[in-house]
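Entry 14. Ran structure prediction on the chain below.
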Amino acid sequence: MTSLNRREFLQVIAVAATSGFNFHSRSSFGVEAESALYAVPRFGNVHFLHFTDCHAQLVPVYFREPAFNIGVGIAENRPPHLVGEALLKHYDFHARSAEAYAFTHLDFDEAARRYGKIGGFAHLATLVKRLRAGRPGVLLLDGGDTWQGSATALWTKGQDMIDACRLLGVDIMTGHWDFTYGADHLKRVVDTQFKGHTEFLAQNVRTADFGDKVFEPYTIREMSGKRWTRCAAKACKPSSCSRTTASMSTSSWQAGSAAST
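Output, structure tokens:
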């Protein structure tokens, strides 16, 4: 068997590259699908980008959607309780497409080889960068459940995700299970690391003694030369406000129904 030294190996790689050989870890199908999904047409003069519940997924992973999702009562066989072929039919997605890979378990092994890993902040940053390029003044909103959900987030009390969000350029954030690191920690991050970078909104988080607001309930921003864009946010999903409040590790705050503002 003929062996190649380092110089010869690099020469072979160079020839292959100039001939159009694909060295990407994913197939060309994954690259083409990614480009198509990112080609979102622009409309209007006020633009928002929003992500939520990433659960500290900092790096891309292989993720297989479940084969069963049982809806009860009026939710039976209705979104979001659809899987597999039923989901493809409802949303008019094609089999073996990027959408089928992202949202169903169908042909997972083959699709994973075709499209590669999904998610992660590298992919998210690419999307945000492309959409921001043609939309001056666009606001990037983080709906929470961002700082917790992985081992590294737990070990660092969410610092790895806080750093990632600052690099991503999040403009406005609210929280959910991000409160699990404790009120003191969250307030310190907001007052120091977020200052001048990210506004933290939460209209339904109040002090337990007098019911004073802890965070601003809304913000007003200028977009397209007009000062009229208003963003408001409550910190907890209604079904889990009490559980999140209990996990704040403090008696000084409480979260309830969103107050009218």
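The first strand starts at residue 48 and ends at 51. Will compare against last week's run tomorrow.
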